[in-house]
Amino acid sequence: xxxxxxxxxxxxxxxxxxxxxxxxxxxxxxxxxxxxxxxxxxxxxxxxxxxxxxxxxxxxxxxxxxxxxxxxxxxxxxxxxxxxxxxxxxxxxxxxxxxxxxxxxxxxxxxxxxxxxxxxxxxxxxxxxxxxxxxxxxxxxxxxxxxxxxxxxxxxxxxxxxxxxxxxxxxxxxxxxxxxxxxxxxxxxxxxxxxxxxxxxxxxxxxxxxxxxxxxxxxxxxxxxxxxxxxxxxxxxxxxxxxxxxxxxxxxxxxxxxxxxxxxxxxxxxxxxxxxxxxxxxxxxxxxxxxxxxxxxxxxxxxxxxxxxxxxxxxxxxxxxxxxxxxxxxxxxxxxxxxxxxxxxxxxxxxxxxxxxxxxxxxxxxxxxxxxxxxxxxxxxxxxxxxxxxxxxxxxxxxxxxxxxxxxxxxxxxxxxxxxxxxxxxxxxxxxxxxxxxxxxxxxxxxxxxxxxxxxxxxxxxxxxxxxxxxxxxxxxxxxxxxxxxxxxxxxxxxxxxxxxxxxxxxxxxxxxxxxxxxxxxxxxxxxxxxxxxxxxxxxxxxxxxxxxxxxxxxxxxxxxxxxxxxxxxxxxxxxxxxxxxxxxxxxxxxxxxxxxxxxxxxxxxxxxxxxxxxxxxxxxxxxxxxxxxxxxxxxxxxxxxxxxxxxxxxxxxxxxxxxxxxxxxxxxxxxxxxxxx
Length: 678
Fold this sequence. Notes:
Layout (H helix, E strand, L loop, with lengths): L5 H7 L12 E3 L12 H4 L7 E3 L19 E3 L19 E3 L8 H10 L5 E2 L2 E2 L1 H26 L10 H18 L8 H25 L9 H9 L20 E2 L19 H12 L4 E7 L15 E8 L3 H4 L6 E9 L2 E6 L4 E7 L5 E14 L2 E12 L3 E6 L4 E7 L5 E6 L6 E6 L3 E6 L12 E7 L4 E6 L7 E6 L2 E6 L8 E2 L3 E7 L2 E3 L4 E6 L4 E6 L5 E5 H4 L9 E4 L1 E6 L11 E4 L4 E5 L5 E5 L1 H8 L14 E3 L4 E2 L10 E6 L5 E6 L4 E6 L1
Parallel strand pairs: 1-2, 2-3, 3-4, 4-5, 20-24, 25-30
Antiparallel strand pairs: 5-6, 7-36, 8-39, 9-10, 10-11, 11-12, 13-14, 14-15, 15-16, 17-18, 18-19, 19-20, 21-22, 22-23, 23-25, 25-26, 27-28, 28-29, 29-31, 32-33, 33-34, 34-35, 37-38, 38-39
C-alpha cells in the first residue's frame, strides 16, 4: 500500500488545506518514500502545486507522469537518484536542488540545464548564464558537428533508392559512429556530450531519412522548377528531391511532379471570368520567374511532423543595422525573416532555410510580429543599435525580444483580449501600435532598456473602434498624424497627433466603397497596405475584391469634426480569386511597386503595377476601366509528407523583402514556403 494518501497530502500542505487542488506548497520530506509511492493519479490532482519538498527520502527515480503543470520549486536533497531526465516533465521549474545524491554527477547538472528552459537556480547557485550557453552555444556546436559527420561519412552511403532495411542499418551505424567521434568540451562532460549528440543525431535522422523514405516521388519527368530547386538548395537531400531543413523541424518533401488540376465542381458563385481563366493558364505556362526554395514546418506543436493544423499568420523581414543602408528602401532588410503562428515565433534565413532561433510560449497563440531598431547602452556609456522584435497574440500580451542576445527581456500587458496585429512607427522607434479584439488600438512607448534590461512602457493613446481592427497602416507622408485601419465593419482613419490633449479618440473618418449599384461603408476589410506614399491597397471579404485608391483624394484633412463619411477615390480594381473566404491578407513591395495576395488554393497572385502608378499620381488620374489581371500566379507545388498530400492549403499571408529577392508564404497548414526570384 502506498505511503501517500489524500489525507497525508492535505496534512502536509503548507498551510494545511481541505482540497488537493488548492495546495501550492507541499512538504513530503523524511517519509522514507520510494519511487513507487509517488502515485501519478493522486499527484495529478495537485494542479496548482508550485513548491514540493521530497528531501531525505529513498527515491532512485521519478515516475514519468506526475502531472504537476505549475511546479516551480523542487527539493530532492538526500535521496538515491540515479537519473534526472524525468524532470523534463516539469517545464516551469525555476529552482531545483538535489545535493547528496551520490550517483548524480556534473553531467546530470548539464542535462537538467538543457531540459529545463526556465531553470534559474541549481543547488542554490544562479546558473542562468551557463544554462544559456548549454542550450544555445553548446547545442549549435554539436549540431554543426553532427551534420558535418553525416555529410562527410554517411550521406553518400545511401543509394538513390533505398529500402527500410538499408535505412535501419545506416541509422544504427551513424548513431554509433557519431557518439564515438563527435567530441566537444572537457572530458569530464563526455557523458553529457554523448547524450546530446545522440539526441541531435536521432532528431536529424527522424527528419531527413524518415520523411525521405516515405515520400511519394511519382515517376514523372522533373520540371525546370524542381531542377532549379535542387541546385540552389544548400541542404539538398540524398536523392535531390527533398530538402533537409533545420534539424529540429520536420521535413517537407517536394515531389518532382507538376501540380494537378482541381477537378472538383465549382459552385455557381465561384465561376471564373474568361479573363481570369486565361490569366491563370498563362501564369502557369509561362517560364517561372521565381522558384520554390524551401518548405518548412517550424511552428509544429511539440515539433510534431503530423501537425498540419497550426495556422501561420504574420511575417516581417529583419531590418539591417547599418544606418546608411536603412535609408535605402531597396537594402533596408536582411534575408532573415520573423514568422509567427501557434505557440512559437521563428527567425529563418531565407537563403539556407535554416531556423536560426525559435521562441515558444506554451499558452500563447501568436498572431503578429513587428521589428524596430533601438540604440541601447551596452556598457561604459557606449551605445549600439540592436533589433528588437515585438510579438503578440491571443493573450493580449506583447513580448519584447532582444534577438541578438536570445533574450525576451520584457512584456507589456496591452489588452485583455487578443491582439490582432502590431506595428512600429517609422518616425518614432519606440512607438508601438497594438490593435485588439477589445475594439481598441493602443499606442505605446516601449522605452529603451538599459544594460540590465530595465525598461518602462507607457500608454500614450487609445483609438476607439466600432468593430474589431484587423489590419493597420500609418500614412507614409504623415506617420505621426494619421493611422488607417481595416476592421470587421469597414475602413477607418484616426488623427494620432500627440500634441492634442485627448488621449482616447473616436475615428475621424470612415470610407465608402462601391457595392454593386451604390456605395457602402459596411464591409470587412481584412487586407490593407500602402503601395506608395498615396496609393492604398485594401481587400474586402466581398468575393474577388481588391481596390487601389488614393489617400490624398479620399481624405479631406481640412474638414472639421469626427466620424465623417468619405468616399474612397478608386483608382483600380485587381482581378483576384472569387472566394469569399476572409483573412487571406495582402502585402505590398513599394520599392518594386508590387502587390501580393494569396488565395484559398495555395496560390500567390502577384501584380506589377509600375506601369500604372505614374498615371494615378497625376491630379487627373482616372480609374482604370477594367480590372487589372495578375502579372503572375505562383501555383502551390504538389507536396507529399509521409507519402500523403497535406490538407487544403490557404495562404494566410505573403510578404516580400524590399529588394523582392525572397517571397515568404504563410499557410493554414503549418507550412512556410520561401520562393526566390531568379
